[in-house]
Amino acid sequence: MITLSSADINMWIAGLLWPLTRILALITAAPILGNKAVPARIKVALGVAIAVIVAPAVPAWPAVDPMSYAGLLIVMQEMLIGLAMGFSIRVIFAAVEMAGEISSLTMGLGFATFFDPNTQGRSSAISQFLSLVATMAFLAVNGHLVLLSALVESFTTLPVSSIPVYSGGFKQMADWGGIVFSVGVQLSLPIVAALLITNVALGILTRAAPQLNLFGIGFPITLGVGLLVVAVTLPYLGMPIQNLFLDGIERARLMPRTWSQRPEVSKPASMPVRPPELQPLAQ
Questions:
Q1: CA 20 to 30 Å from 146, out of 170, 215, 225, 252?
Q2: Using the 8-state DSSP alphabet, how is residue 59 labeled?
């Protein structure tokens, strides 16, 4: 007769709960997998399937009761690791969407907005279009499969442990989030430059012929030039976006290694040994 103790049951629960927490956190934060259009049941089923496959290969986890205070801290830490890995890819989509927002405002399409179910807010038409382009590029480089591979590898580079992660990883994650602004401006720069030249030309034309209705001809011209530049530059956006995704996936792969490192504590220099006091000479 097979007998199971409470320690064995807790070990089985911990062996599935802690990897599942990291996996579900990544699925929630990662693009495509964490899309609002994907039902929650599908996400949970995918996470459980991956956890069942990965759990036997996970290194030995700490002997901690999952229902204890230390076990809850491990759950929170695993959730943080998964969210950070998904965040490294989500940042790139945010940068592409920001490029679309900047382009739309420059073209005069700031009023043409749609409801975005992912952000629960409004986004412009150009932003939605570039987001679809980024999604196709992400699937073209098999980003979803490589991201899951990096997730499985993270259980080896940063195994489940009760030791807190290195806080220096948070700074690197914040630095990586800064590309939202820099990359967004770089991707929208051709459209902004073309429309700047167009607006300068319209200003010169208005000064030369004041009888022209600038508001009547300015908006169609800027809109047409903006759409033309988008169509011309679109074939050249695929490679930069793919390179960004490759960098993001590599960042997600290296992030657990960064968090597993500990700063070396410099040992204080050893104090010189004080020589023994000389005994007074006998008289």
A1: 170
A2: P
For residue 113, pLDDT beyond 80: no
Beta carbons of 222 and 108 less than 8 angstroms apart: yes
Checking 192-199 for CB contacts under 8 A at 24+ apart, the result is 192/102, 192/103, 192/106, 194/225, 194/226, 194/229, 195/106, 195/107, 195/222, 195/225, 195/226, 195/229, 198/222, 198/225
User: With helix as H, strand as E and coil as C, how does 151-181 read?
Assistant: HHHHHHHCCCCCCCCCCHHHHHHHHHHCHHH
- Rounded CA gap, 64 and 84, in Å? 24
User: Are the C-beta atoms of 228 and 220 separated by less than 8 Å?
Assistant: no
Look up residue 221 and give its two tokens: 């011209």
Query: What is the spatial distance between Cα 157 and Cα 260, in angstroms, rounded to a whole number?
Result: 7
Q: Which two tokens stand for residue 257?
A: 């290694």
- List phi, psi (to 5°) of 111: -85, -20
**Which distant-in-sequence residues (6+ apart) come within 8 Å of 109 by Cβ?**
124, 125, 126, 223, 226
Residue 214 near residue 202, CB atoms below 8 Å: yes
The reported pLDDT for the residue numbered 117 is 65
**Per-residue model confidence (pLDDT) at position 52:** 85
**Residue 203 carries which side chain, given as an amino acid letter?**
G
Query: Which of 1-10, 53-62, 79-88, 229-238 is least confident?
Result: 1-10
Contact between 107 and 195 (Cβ < 8 Å): yes
